[in-house]
């Protein structure tokens, strides 16, 4: 097991990547929640990849068009043309660690059935999350 300082160095590195906008954001599902989030992150300067199962939606978004009433085409177009947003269905090898709420009985089982790699239940310690992310990455690299 790695030492705490190594893990905290990973947190520092992540914080640096976030603050310098070098971090890349992945969003699963570009619907009413995912698309506005993707646009907001792209506008904030991050490179965003949205993983979608709808081929139709992928085509539409990559062509700079929105299918969500509250999100005008021009916002999607600007993000796509700036190279800050792309939609893809190639997300099968992305490991997912679900952060869920203590009261959400059944959520963990649903998540695992849907294919999440692992989960933590709120409230959780940063160390625990890092441990699980590390294990999920190791698992995905071994596949
Ligand atoms: N809309 C809300 O106000 C709200 C509030 C709280 C929580 N939520 C939760 O957030 C989640 C998303 O809600 P929404 O309103 O954006 O739904 P939505 O139906 O508008 O969007 C979901 C998107 O995810 C895509 N999708 C489905 N399965 C996928 C998969 N396996 N891989 C990749 N993409 C997939 C769908 O094609 C769709 O584009 C839901 O779990 C919902 O319960 C929504």
One letter per element, helices H and strands E, the order comes to HEHEHHEEHEH
Strand proportion, as a percent range, falls in 15-25%
If classified by CATH, what would the architecture of the largest domain be?
A: 3-Layer(aba) Sandwich
Number of helices: 6
What does this protein look like?
The chain is an alpha/beta fold. The chain folds into two domains: 85 residues, 3-Layer(aba) Sandwich (Rossmann fold), CATH 3.40.50.720; 45 residues, no CATH class. It is 47% helix and 15% strand. It contains six helices and five strands, in the order H-E-H-E-H-H-E-E-H-E-H. The strands form two sheets. It has a three-stranded parallel sheet with strand order 1-2-3. Strands 4-5 form a two-stranded parallel ribbon. The site of nicotinamide-adenine-dinucleotide has 12 residues, from loops.
Please summarize what this structure is:
The chain has 143 residues and is α/β, with parallel strands linked by helices. The protein is built from 6 helices and 5 strands; from the N terminus they run αβαβααββαβα.
Entry keywords:
143 residues; alpha/beta; Rossmann fold; 2 domains; three-stranded parallel β-sheet; two-stranded parallel sheet; 47% helix; 15% strand; binds nicotinamide-adenine-dinucleotide
List the helices and strands and how they pair.
Layout: H1 4-19, E1 24-28, H2 34-43, E2 47-51, H3 55-62, H4 73-81, E3 85-88, E4 97-100, H5 107-114, E5 118-121, H6 126-141
């Amino acid at each position: 097991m790695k030492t705490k300082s190594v893990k905290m160095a990973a947190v520092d590195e992540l914080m640096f990547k976030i603050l310098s906008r070098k971090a890349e954001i992945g969003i699963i599902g570009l619907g009413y929640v995912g698309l506005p989030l993707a646009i907001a992150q792209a506008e904030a300067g991050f490179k965003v990849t949205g993983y979608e199962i709808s081929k139709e939606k992928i085509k539409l978004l990559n062509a700079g068009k929105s299918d969500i009433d509250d999100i005008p085409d021009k916002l999607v177009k600007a993000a796509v043309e700036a190279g800050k947003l792309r939609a893809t269905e190639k997300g099968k090898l992305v490991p997912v660690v679900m952060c869920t709420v203590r009261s959400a009985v059944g959520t963990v089982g649903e998540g695992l059935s849907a294919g999440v790699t692992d989960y933590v239940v709120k409230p959780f310690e940063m160390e625990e999350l890092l441990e699980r992310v590390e294990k999920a990455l190791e698992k995905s690299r071994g596949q």
